[in-house]
Amino acid sequence: MKIVIQRVLEASVKIDGNIYGQIGKGYLLLIGVSNEDTKQIADKMLEKIAKLRIFEDENGKTNLSIADVGGEVLAVSQFTLYADCKKGNRPSFINAGKPDMAEALYLYMLEKCRELFGKVECGQFGADMKVSLVNDGPFTIVLDSNEIL
Fold this sequence. Notes:
Elements: E1 2-15, E2 18-23, E3 26-32, H1 39-51, E4 55-56, E5 62-64, E6 72-77, H2 99-116, E7 120-122, E8 129-144, H3 145-148
Parallel strand pairs: 3-6, 6-7
Antiparallel strand pairs: 1-2, 1-3, 1-8, 4-5
Helix pairs in contact: 1-2
């Protein structure tokens, strides 16, 4: 599993020109699922995200978690995180999770996000989405389950 975490002042996702999900201060999570991913991996990744201390405290140090600042989450499925660009100029997505399995795991993750975080908004799996954000910092982290678990 790969998750891009962007600390944002605000973020939204539109589908067919209409706002589908929108948050204020918090995290935009771009979630990529592979065929090897499981609920246990998802749980560990979300626990890590919940405990990350990347919001500034009163001294300007990144020392606060999303819970500490009452942050919100916008979670968007992003199979392109598994793009393989080794051969040629057209990416291969063979390492991305098969749609049925990936969607089920994404929906599971949304459920878990709602348990861990305050306000949670989402995109729509498989939809053509337009994501907007104001990255705070900018502060962007890439978590790869193969590297942290």
